[in-house]
């Protein structure tokens, strides 16, 4: 019997770099759609929500339904819905995370309300990358966590590469709150179990998952930890030299998704 495979793609550094699609990405996604191979896009970025990502992908000619896009912000919402009791949320994060926490519908305490003392009612402090981070946000998050609120991080990435070089990521903001509270957060994104649980629940009846990513410490660790085929592409953060120097060993290392397209065609012909 033919084994049913599914693919999980990281996005940045895999399907595109900045606003430039990687050669072969569109053709690969079209092939998967035509062949009926299930796939999802899983990003640790929480600053955009799936509808914003759908627009971005569409502008690069990659046309996928919103429900195949899973951000760490959405994964955080789905995980909270599944595992936690409703309670007020204090958010440090970008627009995407704010939208997801609104959709959660448990009520949000904003900084103005926190200033009036509402930080005492906060049950969950949810932290992602926040381009509008202020000392005051860190202060109320600290007070709420020290008051017993659950500390949740969207993703562990301490940095991310951008135009001027390496920028601080969500993990750096989470680290500040770990320092000020002495509390260990629950972190949702890759390479952690909550991201796997949420992604897996979208891929029913699949025998084998291939995880395609550009980062060893998140994507490839994630793949290895949960028994997925670890497919590394070299169009993003890590280089071939990095791969050779680490103990994390991908199952397959390819220059880009263009070569994955050829690999997949051969694979599909062989299993027919
Ligand atoms: Mg990436």
UniProtKB/TrEMBL annotation:
- Alphabetical list of InterPro entries matching this protein: HAD-like_sf, HAD-SF_hydro_IIA, HAD_sf
Asked if the Swiss-Prot or TrEMBL record annotates the protein with the keyword Metal-binding, the reply is: yes
Which GO cellular component term is one of those annotated?
A: cytoplasm
Molecular functions (GO terms) = metal ion binding; phosphatase activity
Task: Recite the UniProt keywords alphabetically.
Answer: Hydrolase, Magnesium, Metal-binding
- Which PANTHER family does this chain map to? 4-NITROPHENYLPHOSPHATASE-RELATED, HALOACID DEHALOGENASE-LIKE HYDROLASE DOMAIN-CONTAINING PROTEIN 2
User: What NCBIfam families does this protein's entry cite?
Assistant: HAD-SF-IIA
Q: What is this protein called?
A: HAD family hydrolase
């Amino acid at each position: 019997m033919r084994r049913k495979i599914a693919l999980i793609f990281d996005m940045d550094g895999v399907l595109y770099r900045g606003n430039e699609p990687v050669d072969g990405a569109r053709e690969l996604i079209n092939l998967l759609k035509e062949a009926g191979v299930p796939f999802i896009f899983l990003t640790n970025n929480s600053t955009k929500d799936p509808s914003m990502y759908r627009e971005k992908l569409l502008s690069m000619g990659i046309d996928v339904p919103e429900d195949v896009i899973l951000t760490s912000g959405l994964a955080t919402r789905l995980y909270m819905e599944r595992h936690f009791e409703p309670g007020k949320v204090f958010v440090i994060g970008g627009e995407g995370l704010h939208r997801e926490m609104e959709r959660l519908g448990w009520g949000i305490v904003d900084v103005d309300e926190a200033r009036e003392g509402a930080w005492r009612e906060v049950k969950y402090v949810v932290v992602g990358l926040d381009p509008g981070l202020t000392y005051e946000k860190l202060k109320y998050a600290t007070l709420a966590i020290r008051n017993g609120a659950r500390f949740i991080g969207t993703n562990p990435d301490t940095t991310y590469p951008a135009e001027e070089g390496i920028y601080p990521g969500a993990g750096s903001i989470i680290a500040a709150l770990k320092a000020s509270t002495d509390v260990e957060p629950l972190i949702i994104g890759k390479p952690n179990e909550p991201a796997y649980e949420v992604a897996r629940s979208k891929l029913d009846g699949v025998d084998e998952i291939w995880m395609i990513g550009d980062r060893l410490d998140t994507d490839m660790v994630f793949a290895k930890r949960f028994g997925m085929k670890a497919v590394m592409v070299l169009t993003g953060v890590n280089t071939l030299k990095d791969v050779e120097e680490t103990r994390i060993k991908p199952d397959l290392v390819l220059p880009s998704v263009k070569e994955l397209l050829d690999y997949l065609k051969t694979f599909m012909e062989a299993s027919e």
